[in-house]
Write a structure and sequence with these properties.
The chain has about 240 residues and is an all-alpha fold. The protein folds into 2 domains: about 80 residues, Rna Polymerase Sigma Factor, Chain: A (Orthogonal Bundle), CATH 1.10.1740.10; about 150 residues, Butyryl-CoA Dehydrogenase, subunit A, domain 3 (Up-down Bundle). Strands 1-2 form a two-stranded antiparallel sheet. The longest helix is centred in the C-terminal third of the chain and has 22 residues. It is elongated and about 65 Å long.
Length: about 240
């Protein structure tokens, strides 16, 4: 393929880079520039153009989105954006949610978490913003592997294709836990997760549907992912919880 053909394909599918970036913004720290993510995604698109093999029976756009997302995640891993204090605050958040849920035997409210941490609800939202993007705080990144294997991500657990009986069993367990957690969430939190992971809406689109700011949507997403992690620790790996 000559440079002219590559350039035409790059222009034709550039929209895929913007689509993936806009989808991933919900779990990317606000301190990172969107343009940098687009640059990384463009590199992924170029790799997809160069390495795509139509004989494998995979749709190009599906393959390109996979490569674009992978390139962006590689870029995120290479950037040491989070100071140690932010990482410590993120761990404190998760500990607080875990301890409160164990003590109360139910999902916690924002007011209860803020009171437990000795901060205001607004300060809690700020900490959720800071924690956004610290791996693994998204369904794409968090893996569950109870049997010491490669594991499956929370996002993979929502799909129906299973590479093996073992992976299928893990997916069933994950789906059950996710369903339990989502069913116990307040309506607004359920809507954010459903619109993002099931309907495929972007951060901006979710905000428009629910009449929320993009920042508030991100805070809700981060909070629910923390709750999922806590519940997974208790239900799927109780001996370590």
């Amino acid at each position: 393929m000559d440079n002219s053909q590559r350039e035409k394909l790059l222009l034709k599918y550039a929209r895929l880079v913007k689509y993936v970036v806009n989808r991933m913004l919900i779990s990317i720290p606000p301190c990172l520039e969107k343009d940098d993510l687009i640059s990384a995604g463009t590199i992924g698109l170029l790799e997809a153009i160069d390495k795509y093999n139509s004989q494998k029976g995979i749709n190009f756009e599906t393959y390109a989105i996979y490569r674009i997302r992978g390139a962006i995640l590689d870029e995120l891993r290479s950037v040491n954006w989070a100071p140690r204090t932010v990482q410590e605050k993120a761990r404190e958040l998760e500990r607080t949610y875990r301890n409160l849920e164990q003590r109360l035997g139910r999902m916690t409210t924002d007011e209860e978490v803020a009171q437990e941490m000795g901060i205001t609800v607004e300060e809690l939202y700020h900490r959720l913003d800071e924690a956004r993007g610290i791996s693994p705080l998204s369904l794409e990144q968090f893996q569950y592997s109870p049997n010491g294997g490669g594991g499956v991500t929370l996002l993979d657990s929502l799909s129906s294709n299973s590479p093996s009986p073992l992976a299928n069993t893990e997916k069933v367990e994950l789906r059950e836990v996710i369903a339990q957690v989502l069913s116990s969430l307040p309506e607004k939190e359920r809507m954010v997760m459903a619109l993002y992971y099931y309907e495929g809406l972007t951060l901006k689109e979710i905000g428009e549907v629910l009449h929320l700011s993009e920042s508030r949507v991100c805070q809700i997403h981060t909070k629910v992912i923390i709750k999922l992690r806590v519940r997974l620790g208790r239900v799927l790996q109780p001996e370590e919880a």
